[in-house]
Design goal:
By secondary structure, the chain is α+β, with helices and mostly antiparallel strands. It has a single domain (13-155), classed as Gcn5-related N-acetyltransferase (GNAT) (Aminopeptidase). It is built from 4 helices and 7 strands. It has a 7-stranded mixed beta sheet with strand order 1-2-3-4-5-7-6, with helices on both faces. Strand 3 (63-73) and strand 4 form a beta hairpin. The termini are far apart.
Length: 161
Amino acid sequence: MPGTFDALSPTPRLRGFRPEDVPTISAIVAEALHEHYDPSLYASLGADWPEGFLVAATEHERPVGFLLGVNQVPGESRVLMFAVERAARGSGVGHRLMDTFLERSRRRGFRRATLEVRVSNVGAIRFYTRYRYSVIDLLRNYYSDGENGYHMARELEAAAP
């Protein structure tokens, strides 16, 4: 379950999503994003672009973070969900997930990446700003609890040949 990450363990490796990840990812989403989704949502959203659904897993294959990226607009990747369990924050897991996602987006030929974030999530906004995401719109009552969100975007350079 979330919260059992050991900072002394080997660095979590990145891999693709597996159906057995759903219970742990759901718990991470509830704790980090304050949202609850139908368990079938994860597999269905990840089906169109499996390489965009990244999971950071311990040596025992337990997820400690994930990034679910989708392609819903031509030429654009979107971070639909991104969370790292509390105990693993600050360990570099989030950076590895974002770096890999942006590289895969470039390789796929996407020219732009977007995401949404709660206006109250100052730490996440700071993280995204370091990745050159900028606020492009305010999304009123965007989240299920009525909180506003920011729509953020960044341009992507072409992938190296």
